[in-house]
Design brief:
The protein is of the alpha+beta class and 267 residues long. It contains 7 helices and 14 strands. It has 2 domains: 138 residues, Fructose-1,6-Bisphosphatase, Chain A, domain 1; 110 residues, D-Maltodextrin-Binding Protein, domain 2 (3-Layer(aba) Sandwich), CATH 3.40.190. It binds D-MYO-inositol-1-phosphate and calcium ion (2 copies).
Length: 267
């Protein structure tokens, strides 16, 4: 693994340690306790265990850094300049159903900007990571977004809607309409973090989803940018942590896809 900065090493070690129990839990999925946070929003004992290990490791390295993590919320809230943004399992629904497509996602935010991040898929043993200014990587290799410039030839992916979304029907409709426009099915693999990582790695040409949370996208933001992609949040003016509607592309097809999405949204 081409990790050569102290901060990336801290993140990698945290992911690696947490992944051991996560892999074990995935093998014994039927024994896991499950609770719900809201309609369709599951949290497993494994989300909590993974989060605990990740946080312990990160705090060991930097006891004073702030943390925003999906299940426990905020730690060291006075430190706003140095924060970890954590999703312990992105893709819990897949995890719960024994589908090997989920990841640990950790971003590091400095003075409001995500400057490094890692998306760690423990089952496929695939690690996507980047640090601002030094490129994006997949395991040992440098990654770049695709060069495709026509939507019709593209692999598009999305996610959602959440079961309690007020825009649920519109989102389903939009999905069907865009599928028709590009004359191809749109992929929905169930992990927003891996969706962004896959655009960065050139597996997808674009990923979009509405009503995400900051921890779903934090690491992906820097990985995608460092891979030459473009990520846009459709709430101009909102602070990054409140931006929830995401379009992430190889940058060449950005305007075409955005135009279509906005058009479909208001039709
Ligand atoms: C979810 C996944 C899913 C996306 C949801 C997210 P979780 O995260 O990223 O793909 O469609 O919007 O909430 O709950 O598995 O961490
Ligand atoms: Ca998530
Ligand atoms: Ca999660």
């Amino acid at each position: 693994m081409r990790i050569n900065s102290p901060r990336m090493t801290v993140i990698y070690n945290a992911c690696n340690k947490a992944s051991r129990s996560l892999i074990r839990d995935f093998g014994e999925i039927e024994k896991l306790q499950v609770s719900t946070k809201g309609p369709g929003d599951f949290v497993t004992a494994s989300d909590k265990r993974t989060e605990k290990i990740v946080i312990e490791e990160l705090l060991k390295a930097h006891p004073d850094y702030g943390i925003l993590s999906e299940e426990v919320g905020v730690i060291n809230k006075e430190n706003k300049d140095h924060r970890w943004i954590i999703d312990p399992i992105d893709g819990t629904f897949n995890f719960l159903n024994g589908i090997p497509h989920f990841a640990i996602s950790i971003g590091y935010e400095e003075k409001g900007e995500i400057v490094c991040g890692m998306i760690f898929d423990p089952i496929k043993n695939e690690t996507f990571f980047a640090e601002k200014g030094t490129g994006a990587f997949f395991n040992n290799s440098r990654i770049r977004v695709t060069k495709k410039n026509k939507l019709i030839n593209c692999a598009l992916a999305t996610g959602g809607p959440k079961s309690d979304s007020p825009r649920k029907e519109n989102i389903f409709e939009e999905y069907t309409k865009i599928s028709r426009v590009v004359d191809a099915p749109i992929r929905k693999f169930g992990s927003a973090a891996l969706g962004l990582a896959y655009v960065a790695a050139g597996r997808f040409d674009a990923y979009w989803e509405w009503e995400l949370n900051y921890w779903d996208v934090a690491a992906g933001m820097v990985i995608l940018k460092e891979a030459g992609g473009y990520i846009e949040f459709l709430e101009p003016g909102a602070p990054t942590s409140n931006k929830r509607n995401v379009i992430a592309t190889n940058s060449n097809i950005h305007e075409e896809l955005k135009g279509l999405l906005i058009k479909k949204n208001i039709e």
